[in-house]
C-alpha cells in the first residue's frame, strides 16, 4: 500500500496543501526549519491510524477543530482514498472508499495487517527521536523478528544443559568463593584428625553427664506434673467463682418469681379496662340517681291529678288516648320507616351473605372474629406467608437463571465438541499438545533433511569422481612402463650374469631390476586406488543416508500433513519457514481453544455443584412456604373465614365479612326497634279496645288507631283541657321508667364486667387489681433477668465443656475461701516456675555436654570416617573434572548453534549496517535467551550498543528498521516509510553511504525523506531524485517542481 497524493485541508500550519508523491521509489521533501515537514509526517500517521488525543503538543480542542485531509493510496491494482477530520465538537470522522465500494475503519485497519499505531511510529515513521529509541525495538511485536520467537527445542536443551553443568560445577567446587563439596570434605577431614587425639577421655565424662541429665529431667517432670495439677485446680476455682455469682443471682430471682406465677393470665390491658369501667359505672350511677328523683316527682304529680280521673273514668281514658294521637301517628310512621329500613337492611345483609359465598348464614357470620386483634394476626400471617413466597420465587428465579446459563454453556460445549469431532476432550488435548511438540521438532528435522541431502550429494560427487578415475599423463604411463620393462631386463640380466660371470654382479643386476619393477608398481598403486572397495563404501553410505532422509521426510510429511514431492523438496527456505510458522500458530490456536473448552467444562461441573446446593436451599424455602401456607389456612379457619391461599382474596373476604357484620348489627337494631314499636302500638290498641268495650263504642274493625282516635276526638273535645296534662305526665313517666330500667341493666352489666375483670386479675377490689398489675410488670422484668443469666451460664458452660459442675458444688462453694486458695496457688506456681527454669537450665547444660561428647567417637570410627572422606573427595574431584569438560563442550555447541541460527532480521540488518558503515561493522548478533545486540567489527572485535557512538548507534537502529520493513513486506504488509532528518549525526562519508543505501532500498519500497539540510537534498538531486522544495511558511497549494 503506497501513497500517491497527500491532500491536507487543515492540519497544524498547513492549509489546502496538495502534495503529489511517487507511488514507488523515493520522494525527497526539503524545507527549512518551521516549514512543516514534521507536521506532514504526523499527518500521514494520523490518516493511517487516527489523529492523537488532545495534548499540549497538539493544542486545545478549539485549535484542533476542523483538522483533516486525505491520502490517496495504491494497494495493488486498487486505488483507495482515505479521509479523516476532527469536527468542532472534537468528534473524529473517517471515510474510506475505493472505485467500487466503501470501507469501514475496522476494514481499513485490517488491510494494514499487524501494523498498529505504535508499530507504524517505531518502524515506518521515523524522526531522530524515534530512531534513537531502543525501547521501541523491545516490544513483543517487534522483538519476535529481531530476537526470534523462541530458541527451539535444541537451543533450549543446550542452554539448560550448559546452565545445569555450570551450576553442578559450582556446587562441587567454587575456587573464587572457596565453597563447594570439595572444600566441605577438606574441612571435615581436618576436624577428624584433631578428634582422633582426644577420643579416649570422653566416655567417663559422658557417663557422669548422662546421670546428671537423667536426674534433672526427672526433677523437671515432677515439677511440671505439680504445675499442671495446680493450674487445673486454679482454673477450676476461677471457673467456679465465675459461675457461682450468676447461679446465686438466678436462685434469688427464681424464688422471687414464684410469687408472680399466679398472674400469668393477667389481662394485657387490664389497667385501661379498669379505668374505662370505673368511669362508665360512675356515669351510670349518676344517671340512675337523676332518673329515680324524676320518677318520684312524676309519681307525686300523678297522684295529685288522680282525683280528677275518678270523676270521669272513661272520658279520662279516652282523653288520654286522644292526647296520645300524635304519639301514635309518630309511632306508626316510625314503625313504617323502621320496617322499611329493616327490610332494606335484611336485603342488603342477604346480598352480602350471598357475596361471601355459598353456605353463609347469619349464625356463621356471627361466628367470624372481626376484632382488631384478629386483623393484626391476619396481617402478620399474610406478611410471613408472602415473605416465604417471595424468598422461594427469588431463589427459584436465581436457580432457573443459573440452570439456563449452565445448560446453554453445556449445549455450546457439546456443539463445539461435535463440530470439532471430539469425543474425549482429554484425548484431544493430549493430541494437540503432541502435535505442537511435533511442530517444534520440525525445525530439527529440516536441518537433518538438509544434512542428509548434502551428504548424499557429496558421496555421489565422490563416487562419480572415482568412477571416472584419476588418469595419469601419457608420459608418466610411458615412464612407468619403461621402468617395468627395464626392471624385467635387469632381472634377467642379473640371472644371466650370476650364472655366467659372477654371483655378485648378477645379484646387483637382479636387485636393480626388482627395484625398477617395484617402483613402477608402487607409483601405479599410489595413483590408482582400489575402485571396488571405495565404490562399495560410498554406495552403502548413499543408501544409508537415503534411508534416513526418507525417514526424516516421512516424519516431516506426518507433521505437516503434506506428502513430500519434488516441488516441496525444492521449496524455498522462506516458504518452509512461513509454512512452519503457520502450522505452529494453528496448533497453538487449536490447543488454546481446547484448553478454553476444558476450562468451560470445569466451570460446568462447578456450576452443577452450585445447582445441587441451590436445590437443597429451594427445598428449604418450599418447606417454609408450606409451613406458612398451613399457618395461614389455620388462621383463616380459626377466624371463621373461607380457606384460600390467596392473601388478597382472604383480605377481601375478611373485609366483606366485616361489612356484613356491620350490616347485621344495624339490621338487628332495626328489628328490635320494629318489635318495640309493634309492642307499643299493640298496647295502645288493647287499651283502646278495652275502653271501647267499657263505653260500648264501635270496635276498630280494621281501622287504624289514629283514625279511631280522630273519631273519638270529636266526641271527647270537652275532656281535652282536663286530661291533657295527665296524659303527658303519664307518658313522660313511662318513658322515664323505661330509661331507668335501661340504665339499671347497663349498670348491672358494667358491674358484671368489673367483677369478671377483677377475677381475671386475681383481685377483689380495683386497688388490689392495680397492685397485681405492678407485680406483673416486675415478673416480666424478673423473667428477662433470668433469661440473661441463663445465657451467661450457658456461655460459661461452653468455655469449659470438660468440667462438670453439679448444684451441690455451687451450694457448698465459698467465694472468699476460693479466692484465698487461688492466691496461694499463684504463689506456689511462681516458686515452681523458678524451680522448673533452674532444672531446664541444668538439663540444657547437661545435654549440650552430652552432644559435645557424643561427637567425639572412638579412634577406629574416626579413622574409618577419615578413609571414607578420602574416597568421597576422590569421587567428587572426578565428578568436577567431568562436569568442567562437559561445560566446555556445551559452551562450544551453544556458540556453534548460536552462530548458525541467528534471526533472519539480524542477517538483513547486518547487510544494511555493513553498507551504512562502509564495511566497518560486518554483523549484528544477539546472544541466546537475551535481548541484547552485539556488533562485530571487521577486525573481529565486538561491541555492545552502549559502546557505540551516537551516529553509529543511529545507523544500527536504521539498519534494523530497514530489515524489519523487508520482513514485514514478505508477510504481505507493504506500507510507505517516512524518514525525517535521520542523517544529522552522520559524517560526510557515511551520509553518502546512507544516501546510497536508501536509494537501493527505495527501489523495492516507497520512501518519503524529509530534510532541512540543503546538501542532503542536493546529494539526492545529483543521484537523479528531484526534491520537493517547501517554502518557509506553508500557505496555499504547493506543486512539485519535477519528478
UniProtKB/TrEMBL annotation:
Membrane-spanning residues: 474-496, 503-523
Domain of life the protein comes from: Bacteria
Gene3D superfamilies xref list: P-loop containing nucleotide triphosphate hydrolases
Domain (YhaN AAA) ranges: 1-216
Record's keyword annotation contains Transmembrane helix: yes
Keyword terms: Coiled coil, Membrane, Transmembrane, Transmembrane helix
Chain segments annotated as coiled-coil in the UniProt record: 213-240, 274-312, 422-449, 535-597, 709-760, 815-856
Pfam families: AAA_27 (PF13514)
Keyword set includes Membrane: yes
Record protein name field: YhaN AAA domain-containing protein
Native organism: Rubinisphaera brasiliensis (strain ATCC 49424 / DSM 5305 / JCM 21570 / IAM 15109 / NBRC 103401 / IFAM 1448)
Amino acid at each position: 500500500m503506497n501513497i500517491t497524493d497527500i491532500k491536507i485541508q487543515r492540519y497544524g500550519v498547513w492549509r489546502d496543501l496538495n502534495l503529489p508523491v511517487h507511488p514507488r521509489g523515493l520522494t525527497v521533501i526539503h524545507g527549512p526549519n518551521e516549514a512543516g515537514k514534521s507536521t506532514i509526517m504526523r499527518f500521514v500517521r494520523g490518516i493511517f491510524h487516527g489523529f492523537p488525543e488532545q495534548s499540549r503538543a497538539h493544542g486545545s480542542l478549539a485549535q484542533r477543530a476542523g483538522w483533516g485531509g486525505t491520502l490517496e493510496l495504491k494497494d495493488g491494482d486498487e486505488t483507495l482514498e482515505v479521509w479523516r477530520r476532527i469536527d468542532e465538537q472534537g468528534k473524529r470522522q473517517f471515510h474510506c472508499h475505493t472505485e467500487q465500494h466503501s470501507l469501514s475503519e475496522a476494514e481499513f485497519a485490517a488491510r494494514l495487517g499487524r501494523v498498529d499505531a505504535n508499530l507504524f511510529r517505531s518502524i515506518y515513521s521515523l524522526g531522530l527521536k524515534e530512531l534513537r529509541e531502543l525501547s521501541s525495538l523491545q516490544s513483543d511485536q517487534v522483538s519476535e523478528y529481531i530476537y526470534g520467537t523462541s530458541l527451539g527445542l535444541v537451543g533450549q536443551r543446550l542452554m539448560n544443559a550448559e546452565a545445569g553443568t555450570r551450576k553442578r560445577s559450582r556446587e562441587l567446587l567454587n575456587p573464587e568463593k572457596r565453597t563447594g563439596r570439595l572444600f566441605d570434605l577438606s574441612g571435615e577431614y581436618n576436624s577428624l584428625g584433631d578428634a582422633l587425639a582426644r577420643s579416649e577421655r570422653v566416655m567417663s565424662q559422658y557417663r557422669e553427664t548422662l546421670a546428671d541429665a537423667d536426674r534433672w529431667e526427672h526433677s523437671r517432670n515432677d515439677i511440671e506434673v505439680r504445675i499442671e495439677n495446680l493450674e487445673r485446680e486454679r482454673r477450676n476455682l476461677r471457673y467456679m467463682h465465675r459461675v457461682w455469682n450468676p447461679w446465686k443471682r438466678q436462685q434469688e430471682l427464681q424464688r422471687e418469681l414464684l410469687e408472680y406465677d399466679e398472674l400469668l393470665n393477667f389481662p394485657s390491658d387490664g389497667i385501661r379496662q379498669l379505668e374505662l369501667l370505673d368511669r362508665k359505672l360512675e356515669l351510670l350511677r349518676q344517671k340512675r340517681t337523676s332518673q329515680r328523683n324524676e320518677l318520684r316527682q312524676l309519681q307525686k304529680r300523678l297522684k295529685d291529678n288522680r282525683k280528677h280521673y275518678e270523676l270521669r273514668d272513661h272520658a279520662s281514658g279516652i282523653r288520654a288516648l286522644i292526647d296520645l294521637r300524635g304519639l301514635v301517628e309518630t309511632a306508626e310512621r316510625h314503625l313504617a320507616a323502621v320496617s322499611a329500613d329493616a327490610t332494606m337492611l335484611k336485603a342488603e345483609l342477604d346480598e352480602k351473605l350471598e357475596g361471601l359465598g355459598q353456605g353463609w348464614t347469619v349464625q356463621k357470620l356471627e361466628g367470624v372474629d372481626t376484632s382488631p386483634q384478629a386483623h393484626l394476626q391476619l396481617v402478620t400471617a399474610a406478611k410471613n406467608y408472602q415473605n416465604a413466597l417471595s424468598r422461594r420465587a427469588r431463589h427459584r428465579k436465581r436457580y432457573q437463571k443459573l440452570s439456563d446459563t449452565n445448560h446453554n454453556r453445556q449445549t455450546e460445549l457439546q456443539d463445539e465438541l461435535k463440530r470439532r469431532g471430539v469425543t474425549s476432550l482429554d484425548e484431544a488435548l493430549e493430541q494437540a499438545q503432541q502435535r505442537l511438540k511435533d511442530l517444534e521438532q520440525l525445525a530439527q528435522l529440516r536441518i537433518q533433511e538438509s544434512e542428509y541431502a548434502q551428504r548424499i550429494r557429496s558421496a555421489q560427487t565422490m563416487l562419480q569422481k572415482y568412477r571416472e578415475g584419476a588418469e595419469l599423463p601419457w608420459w608418466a604411463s610411458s615412464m612407468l612402463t619403461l621402468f617395468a620393462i627395464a626392471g624385467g631386463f635387469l632381472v634377467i640380466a642379473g640371472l644371466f650374469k650370476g650364472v655366467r660371470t659372477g654371483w655378485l654382479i648378477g645379484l646387483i643386476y637382479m636387485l636393480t631390476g626388482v627395484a625398477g619393477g617395484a617402483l613402477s608398481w608402487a607409483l601405479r598403486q599410489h595413483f590408482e586406488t582400489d575402485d571396488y572397495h571405495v565404490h562399495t563404501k560410498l554406495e552403502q553410505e548413499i543408501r544409508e543416508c537415503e534411508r534416513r532422509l526418507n525417514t526424516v521426510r516421512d516424519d516431516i510429511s506426518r507433521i505437516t500433513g503434506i506428502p513430500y514431492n519434488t516441488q516441496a523438496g525444492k521449496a524455498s527456505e522462506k516458504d518452509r519457514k512461513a509454512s512452519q510458522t503457520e502450522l505452529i500458530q494453528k496448533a497453538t490456536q487449536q490447543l488454546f481453544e481446547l484448553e478454553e473448552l476444558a476450562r468451560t467444562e470445569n466451570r460446568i461441573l462447578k456450576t452443577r455443584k452450585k445447582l445441587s446446593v441451590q436445590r437443597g436451599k429451594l427445598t428449604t424455602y418450599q418447606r417454609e412456604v408450606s409451613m406458612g401456607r398451613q399457618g395461614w389456612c389455620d388462621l383463616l379457619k380459626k377466624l371463621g373465614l373461607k380457606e384460600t391461599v390467596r392473601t388478597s382474596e382472604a383480605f377481601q373476604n375478611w373485609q366483606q365479612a366485616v361489612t356484613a357484620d356491620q350490616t347485621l348489627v344495624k339490621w338487628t337494631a332495626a328489628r328490635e326497634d320494629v318489635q318495640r314499636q309493634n309492642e307499643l302500638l299493640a298496647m295502645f290498641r288493647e287499651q283502646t279496645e278495652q275502653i271501647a268495650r267499657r263505653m260500648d263504642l264501635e270496635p276498630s274493625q280494621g281501622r287504624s288507631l289514629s283514625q279511631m282516635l280522630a273519631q273519638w276526638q270529636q266526641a271527647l273535645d270537652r275532656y281535652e283541657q282536663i286530661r291533657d296534662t295527665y296524659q303527658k305526665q303519664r307518658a313522660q313517666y313511662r318513658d322515664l321508667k323505661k330509661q331507668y330500667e335501661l340504665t339499671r341493666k347497663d349498670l348491672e352489666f358494667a358491674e358484671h364486667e368489673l367483677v369478671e375483670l377483677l377475677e381475671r386479675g386475681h383481685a377483689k377490689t380495683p386497688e388490689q387489681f392495680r397492685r397485681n398489675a405492678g407485680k406483673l410488670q416486675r415478673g416480666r422484668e424478673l423473667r428477662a433477668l433470668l433469661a440473661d443469666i441463663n445465657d451467661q451460664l450457658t456461655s460459661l458452660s461452653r468455655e469449659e465443656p470438660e468440667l462438670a459442675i453439679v448444684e451441690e458444688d455451687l451450694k457448698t462453694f465459698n467465694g472468699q475461701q476460693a479466692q484465698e486458695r487461688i492466691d496461694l496457688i499463684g504463689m506456689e506456681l511462681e516458686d515452681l516456675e523458678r524451680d522448673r527454669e533452674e532444672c531446664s537450665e541444668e538439663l540444657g547444660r547437661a545435654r549440650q555436654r552430652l552432644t559435645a561428647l557424643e561427637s567425639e567417637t572412638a579412634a577406629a570410627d574416626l579413622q574409618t570416617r577419615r578413609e571414607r572422606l578420602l574416597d568421597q573427595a576422590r569421587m567428587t574431584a572426578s565428578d568436577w573434572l567431568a562436569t568442567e569438560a562437559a561445560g566446555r563442550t556445551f559452551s562450544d555447541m551453544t556458540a556453534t548453534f548460536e552462530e548458525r541460527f541467528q534471526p533472519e532480521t539480524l542477517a538483513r540488518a547486518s547487510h544494511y549496517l555493513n553498507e551504512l558503515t562502509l564495511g566497518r561493522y560486518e554483523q549484528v548478533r544477539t546472544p541466546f535467551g537475551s535481548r541484547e545486540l552485539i556488533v562485530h567489527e571487521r577486525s573481529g572485535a565486538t561491541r555492545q550498543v552502549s559502546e557505540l557512538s551516537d551516529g553509529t548507534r543511529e545507523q544500527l537502529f536504521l539498519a534494523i528498521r530497514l530489515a524489519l520493513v523487508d520482513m514485514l513486506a514478505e508477510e504481505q504488509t507493504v506500507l510507505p516509510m517516512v524518514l525525517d532528518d535521520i542523517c544529522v549525526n552522520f559524517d560526510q562519508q557515511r551520509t553518502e553511504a546512507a544516501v546510497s543505501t536508501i536509494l537501493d532500498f527505495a527501489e523495492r519500497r516507497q520512501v518519503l525523506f524529509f530534510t532541512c539540510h540543503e546538501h542532503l537534498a542536493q546529494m539526492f538531486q545529483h543521484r537523479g531524485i528531484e526534491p520537493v522544495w517547501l517554502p518557509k511558511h506553508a500557505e496555499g497549494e504547493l506543486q512539485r517542481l519535477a519528478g
